Amino acid sequence: MEKIVGIICFIFFGLGFIVALIKFIFKNQRDKQTIKALIGGIIMLAMSIYLINIDDTKSSPEVSNSSTIQNEKQEININAPIPEQIDEHIKKVVDKNDYINVEVNEHMGRNDGTKMVLVYVKAHGYKTYKSALINATKVFKELYTSQLPIGEVCIFFKGDFTDKYGNQSEQTAIKIIMDLNTAQNINWQNFDWRNLPSITNSVYVHPGIDKNE
Fold first, then answer.
1. What is the DSSP string of the chain?
2. What is the distance between the alpha carbons of residues 85 and 70, in angstroms, rounded to a whole number?
3. Contact, 8 vs 49, CB < 8 A?
4. Per-residue pLDDT tens listing for the chain (213 residues)
5. Computed from CA positions of residues 197, 202, 206, 207, in that sequence, does the dihedral angle turn out positive or negative?
């Protein structure tokens, strides 16, 4: 709407400006009224251009957003091998600075051709329990709604710990396991990450992790 108004104003005031300019240059009518008309014409033309650009600015985010959504839909190559697809799904929800690696193996405990997925990500310091539950929920949801043949997912949050002798080493801060049977009972749209410890198949928390943080 702003664009249409801007175009109409641009044409109307543009004609007035041209008439005033002709009077000023060719007919030597340089009285105050003509000068005011020229200045007013310049101001109104600028406002008209502004109105036209407002409409373009409003529409550009929509184009950008639709383009982003389209890119998100295209980023998983469904023709790639299953391990590569799983890896790409995980990278969608795990920060690139936290990502370590992913291992995809045949699930030996199931005879349905599903995969065992081992996800390794970084844990941040000793205050990681809450963030681990939130991020694990994102990973479980992404993988178990991907329609890929996944039988079990085990997420390892790796962190550096210092023992009482002052020796530092990388250890598993938190490990969370969820199998397909459990995942199929979850309504992911309404699931609260706070309930994750009570419904997963296994949760390990390093003694150095404060669960209250």
1. -HHHHHHHHHHHHHHHHHHHHHHHHTS---SHHHHHHHHHHHHHHHHHHHHHHHHHHHHHHHHHHHHHHHHHHHSS-TTS-HHHHHHHHHHHHS-TTTEEEEEEEE-TT-SSS-EEEEEEEE--TT--HHHHHHHHHHHHHHHHTTT--EEEEEEEEEEEEE-TTS-EEEEEEEEEEEEHHHHTT--TTT--GGGHHHHSSEEEE-TTS-TT-
2. 18
3. no
4. 555 655 665 566 556 656 666 665 655 655 666 666 657 667 775 666 766 666 544 444 443 344 343 344 447 788 889 999 999 999 999 988 899 999 999 887 777 889 999 999 998 654 578 889 999 999 999 999 999 999 999 999 999 888 889 999 999 999 999 999 999 999 999 999 999 999 999 999 998 888 876
5. positive
* C-alpha to C-alpha distance for 104 and 93, rounded to whole angstroms: 17
Rounded-to-integer distance, Cα 52 and Cα 8, Å: 10
Helices 82-93 & 129-144 angle (0-180, nearest 10): 140
Residue 176 contacts residue 210 (beta carbons within 8 Å)? no
